[in-house]
Amino acid sequence: MVRTIPLQFTITGTEIHIPFKAMCSITEKPFSGVVRIAYRPQKKAVEYVDMEKVVNTLCRGKLTAEQLTHRIYKDVKRSIRPKSLCVTVDVKKSAAHRPVTVWIDDKSN
Question: Which residues contact 90 (CB under 8 A, 6 or more apart)?
Fold first, then answer.
């Protein structure tokens, strides 16, 4: 679970950008880029520093961009129950393939 902060007022939306470096579980080669978390909050917001720790912890193990996207989406959804949520993993550099972007949003769940 991600640490949250209560909201006593209305926020239309929030977008967090977190750089990451990871090791692919398939190719066993490094890849890196930016995780973007965009959401419309209800009563809680994600605590940014903790979200960065969550991403860094996930990236310590071997995983794919798809797995990283899925795990972050599930954690944020469970933690704050936003009105809408989109998690994007934008792989800018990879030792195995060209750049790729993976995302999960409310329309896909």
Answer: 33, 34, 35, 36, 99, 101
Residue 42 neighbours by CB under 8 Å, 6+ apart: 7, 80, 81, 82, 83
Terminal-residue alpha carbon distance, the chain: 19
Six-digit token string for 63: 């995983």
Of 30, 89, 104, 18, the closest CA to residue 56 belongs to 18
In angstroms, the CA 109 to CA 101 distance is 18
Residues 46-68 have pLDDT tens digits of 999 999 999 999 999 999 999 99
Task: Please report the pLDDT score of residue 1 as a whole number.
Answer: 82
Structure tokens belonging to residue 5: 């902060």
The verdict on pTM exceeding 0.85 is yes
